[in-house]
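Data availability (excerpt). The following record was deposited with the supplementary files.
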Amino acid sequence: MGTKLKSNIDQLFDQWKSEHAELDNYAMELARWIRDQTKRRDAQFREAVTRLNDLSSRLADHFAIEQTIGEKLIDAQGRPRPETESLHRQADRDHANIKVRLKHLSDRMLEAESECDAWKSSGVELNLILDMLEQHEEQEAESVGWLLPRNSDVS
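Predicted structure:
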């Protein structure tokens, strides 16, 4: 494998790790905000939807980087390996599932704005989505680490 390709993979992975940390911080701040809103009498559904849509947009950018890293890893290997293809398929399924669940939650929050119990159930659903996202990112980081060229530092 060429040094330039390895360098490109390392740079992409560093960018991915940095964006992952920012995404994680944003998601945790969103969860905190939802919890704080739960204590208020008028939960701010429209603001929550705006924040969910922002999270969804950030995830789309993050997932695009993950896609590029996957493609670069395949290029570095010279040919697709079963474990790389399996990781790619699982990531695609996870990404689609997370995006669909966020969209569904956003739509539901707009429709249920006046329902008393809607905020609480929306908060529970958001926490489940964030847990799924965290689990996905941890698994993906571990899997990508296994697939990176031997000399790359993934910690």
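Summary of structural features: Residues 3-38 form the longest helix (36 residues).
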